[in-house]
Amino acid sequence: MDLGISGKRALVCAASKGLGKGCAWALAEAGVDLVINARGSDVLKETAREISDRFGVKVNYVAADITSPTGRAAVLEVASDIDILVTNAGGPPPGVWSDWSRDDFIAALDANMLSPIALMQALMPAMITKGWGRVVNITSQSVKAPISQLGLSNAARAGLTGFVAGTSRQVAPHGVNINNLLPGIHATDRADMLDQAIVVQRGITLDEARAQRAATIPARRYGAAADFGAACAFLCSQQAAFIVGQNIVLDGGAANITI
User: 179, 189, 187: which is closest to 227 by C-alpha?
Assistant: First the structure.
């Protein structure tokens, strides 16, 4: 399918690996020029070269912490005029309710709520002026089916979801569509971290921990970054013009959600 976005320009955050890289890869395959961001410069530089060599699109990269004001400023200096924004940041650590201080919640809000909002506020005015734009926020399945040990993530990402619910309806008349993609378990560093926590908690091997979690997914496997990237690219396409303010779960059927 021709997504109709060849020649557009996108900013993809946390794009050196995992779900962010999957999104960047799929957008580049559709002919989109990229600005990609992550904290680690070496892996990010290699990802930029890999994508550019594979698809022949222009790829700029900015190594910076997108959750900090100085990091965002560095990224926005390069990505001030883009058509597509994909926000993404690593989730906060797991724990129980009694573990978390105010500082823990503020850090989670900065990374998973306030940083995406700041990027939207900075970049959507130009999209509105052009009469076309796409924003995809990578959040979590936990927005619809909260996960007990991920209370920090549940709270911060739910706040972002609420912001998008109102904002998406305000900017849609200007041709700018905002939607959220909610991943379940995918084969990423984040999954490795959570699997390792199960190893420690239950005294089992890493393979056993992965098998136990995969068994909770009707698809009986972890998701792949390519699966996720394809869904992201579609939401950024011309064909997705009538999809506004939605929270789309990609979890292999793990969360039995009816609404």
Answer: 187
pLDDT score for 195: 81
Task: Summarize pLDDT for 32-60 with one digit per residue, the tens.
Answer: 999 999 999 999 999 999 999 999 999 99
Measure CA 206 to chain center.
26
Angle at 256 between CA 253 and CA 259, to 5 degrees: 110
**pTM assigned to the model:** 0.92
116: its two tokens: 């995406």
Q: Which two tokens stand for residue 48?
A: 């930029």
Residue type present at position 81? D
Long-range contacts of 140-145 (CB under 8 A, 24+ apart): 140/91, 140/182, 140/183, 141/182, 141/183, 141/184, 141/249, 141/250, 141/251, 141/254, 141/255, 142/182, 143/180, 143/182, 143/247, 144/182, 144/247, 144/249, 144/255, 144/257, 145/255, 145/257
The continuous run of DSSP H or E covering 18 comes out as: helix 18-29
Is residue 131 within 8 A of residue 83, CB to CB? The reply is no
Ramachandran quadrant class, 252 (left: phi over 0; alpha: psi -120 to 50; beta: rest): left
Place of tokens 């997108």: 66
State the Rg of the chain over Cα: 18
